[in-house]
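Practice problem: predict the structure.
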Amino acid sequence: MIPNYIQQLTQAEPIFQNIIVRYGMPKITTRKAGFGALVHLILEQQVSIASAKSCYIKIENHSPIIPKNLLLISNEQFKTLGVSKQKTLYIKNLAQQIVDNTIDIENLHTLPNEEIFKKLTSLKGIGSWTAQVYMMFCLQNPDIFPVGDIAVQKTMQELFGCTTIQQMEEKANQWKPYRSYATYILWHHYLSIRNRSV
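Answer:
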């Protein structure tokens, strides 16, 4: 059975219907919320998913991924695990903020969307893309549009002729309150026409 949110999106946007007919249903990605998920997303910034996953596994094999443990890993050790100096700084800063109770990652889901976004982007190394993808994958928010994502931008240009961020956001506003699921369809199209899997 096709979920209600997909039915509404395909009725609002015939191009989405064509994508699903041609390539099947999009994969809805979920991840367990928390510190580990944010570390993983930091590692995914500007590198391939496979590369980030490999790096994450190396850290995990070295030490359980909890804030106090990662603070004990030296910068040199992080380097041998494949983590750049910049990302090491971001991960350690995040860990320190949690240890100091500056941010309560475990209870973010209880806050309004705007507050979640504000708290996440206040952390060094966590920009709009990382915060939005965390809200999509980990908090399962149905109405997020990560317009900074390169695949989203390319697909919006290919399918709808959008050439500016403003045009993309205006188009995406037509898909409220299910912009997250619309994004999954966009990613599905992007990967499918390039013969790549999730």
